[in-house]
């Protein structure tokens, strides 16, 4: 991912937090000479060796998986808030642009066994059911319902490289920077407001 130095996020804790909060990603690989992509939750976890990995699952019917054996290198793309930035918000003439946060994770994928897949499902469901009034637990599902889990397989991605971009108008002076935040907040667009919030964190 091309990222000018000014927009690079090289803070491991910042990247870790982003991945945990924006875990619905795009898994990309090459299968039979063709690029394939699937939109799925891909969670940042720590393995038994204390190393950070990504994990998730795919349907066994998904042809993308055919490429895991012949080409185990994959790319997982995660995106956060983004918004159009009008140059009319500057105190000088310039071109419009787009602000956004994104992380690309490159690594090597491996399929895990059924027991590990079920453990991954338990963690995933527990995470997203935490705020439910009547949370669902994988442990409580019937044998009949759990038969559906036979149609998926879990995977782990050993991380080789992480590229993180946080393009939030860092190249603007304080006056224009604050004005961009103000204009984003006026839009009442959730994405724009989220970008304004991230910008406020970066420069007080």
Automatic annotation (TrEMBL):
Source organism superkingdom? Bacteria
Recorded hits in InterPro entries, A to Z, give:
Split_barrel_FMN-bd, TR_PAI2-type
UniProt name for this protein: FMN-binding negative transcriptional regulator
């Amino acid at each position: 991912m091309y990222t000018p130095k000014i927009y690079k996020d090289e803070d491991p804790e910042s990247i870790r937090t982003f991945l945990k909060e924006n875990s619905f990603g795009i898994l990309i690989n090459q299968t039979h000479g063709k690029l394939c992509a699937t939109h799925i939750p891909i969670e940042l976890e720590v393995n038994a060796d204390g190393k950070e990995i990504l994990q998730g699952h795919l349907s066994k019917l998904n042809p993308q998986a055919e490429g895991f054996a012949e080409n185990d290198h994959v790319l997982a793309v995660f995106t956060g808030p983004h918004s159009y930035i009008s140059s009319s918000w500057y105190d000088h003439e310039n071109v419009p642009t787009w602000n956004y946060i994104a992380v690309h994770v490159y690594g090597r994928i491996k399929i895990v066994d059924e027991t590990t897949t079920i453990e991954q499902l338990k963690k995933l469901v527990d995470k997203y059911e935490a705020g439910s009034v009547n949370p669902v637990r994988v442990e409580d599902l019937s044998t009949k319902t759990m038969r559906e889990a036979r149609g998926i397989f879990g995977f782990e991605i050993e991380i080789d490289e992480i590229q993180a971009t946080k393009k939030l108008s860092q190249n603007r002076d304080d006056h224009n920077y604050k004005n961009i935040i103000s204009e984003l907040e006026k839009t009442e667009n959730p994405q724009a407001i989220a970008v304004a919030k991230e910008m406020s964190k970066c420069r007080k």
